[in-house]
Amino acid sequence: MKDRLRLLKLVLIGLGVCLAGRIAVAENIDPANQGLKYAYGENVGWFNFKPDQGPGVTVTALGLTGFAWAENIGWINLSPVNGGGVKNDGQGNLSGFAWGENVGWINFRPTGAGVHIDSKGHFIGKAWGENIGWVSFNSTGAVPFGVTTAWRRALQAPAMNAFGIVVLGIGLCLVPIYLRRVKGAVRSHTSVGLSSAEDIG
Questions:
Q1: What is the predicted pLDDT for the residue at 54?
Q2: pLDDT at residue 49 is higher than 60
Q3: Angstrom distance (rounded) from CA 170 to CA 161
Q4: DSSP, residue by residue, 6-68
Q5: How many of the other CB atoms lie within 10 Å of CB of 75?
Q6: 76-110 CB burial, b ≥16 within 10 A, e <16
Q7: Is this prediction's pTM over 0.90?
Q8: C-alpha distances in angstroms, 44 versus 131, 150, 159?
Q9: What is d(CA 158, CA 197) in angstroms, rounded to the nearest whole number?
Q10: Nearest to 149 by CA among 41, 23, 37
């Protein structure tokens, strides 16, 4: 009976940890609650990526999910079933399309523009909607605004060409040889030191 209770406790704790992780991910727009949750459409006004009502938007390494709210045009679906949704390449470069029932498709990588997430979680750039024009994700102008996320891109290992791989391989092969020589030199130096000490004593 005690074993079953322990097992039940472990399952409940594990479930709690999983749910806590999902909740944290679901709320990753404007994590510091500084009002950095707004994009601006030149012809349609503000887009709220963390609205008080509704699910809001979640950023992951694969893409954006959920809904943004725009007072003048309604809900914008960042992950529509048809059309693929807004993708993230894992480094913060966004592409693909969001869908607004009242305005159609919004392209996150139009020719000559696009949106990316920088290393601090700030959305930078512009998206394009055929029916609404440009949607800006950041501005430091007279009315500063922006969208931030708690998501951060993964660090990439530096690229290595064939020469770098060969040098690294040779270095890794030489380290054990060097260490054996150093270890041998320390032993021979120590034994010489001991015999000298014995001669003195």
A1: 85
A2: yes
A3: 15
A4: HHHHHHHHHHHHHHHHHHHHHT-BSTT-SS-BEEEETTTEEEESS-SSS--EEE-SSBEEEEE
A5: 16
A6: bbbbbeeeebbbbeeebbbbbbbbbeebebbbbbb
A7: no
A8: 10, 27, 43
A9: 52
A10: 37
Dist CA 154 CA 77 (whole Å):
26
In which residue are the tokens 């725009």 written? 70
Q: How confident is the model at residue 84 (pLDDT cuts 50, 70, 90)?
A: confident
Name which of 165, 70, 50 is nearest 127 in CA terms: 70
- Residue with token string 């305005």: 103
Copy the structure tokens of residue 79: 């992950």
Position with higher pLDDT, 24 vs 140: 140
Beta strand pairing call for 104-107 and 123-129:
antiparallel
Residue 81 backbone dihedrals phi, psi, to 5 degrees: -65, -45
Q: How far apart are the first and last CA of the chain?
A: 72
> What is the spatial distance between Cα 179 and Cα 174, in angstroms, rounded to a whole number?
9
Structure tokens at 162: 């064939």
- Joined tokens for residue 173: 């092969």
Number of Cβ within 10 Å of residue 158's Cβ equals: 6
Q: How do strand 57-59 and strand 74-77 relate by DSSP bridges?
A: unpaired
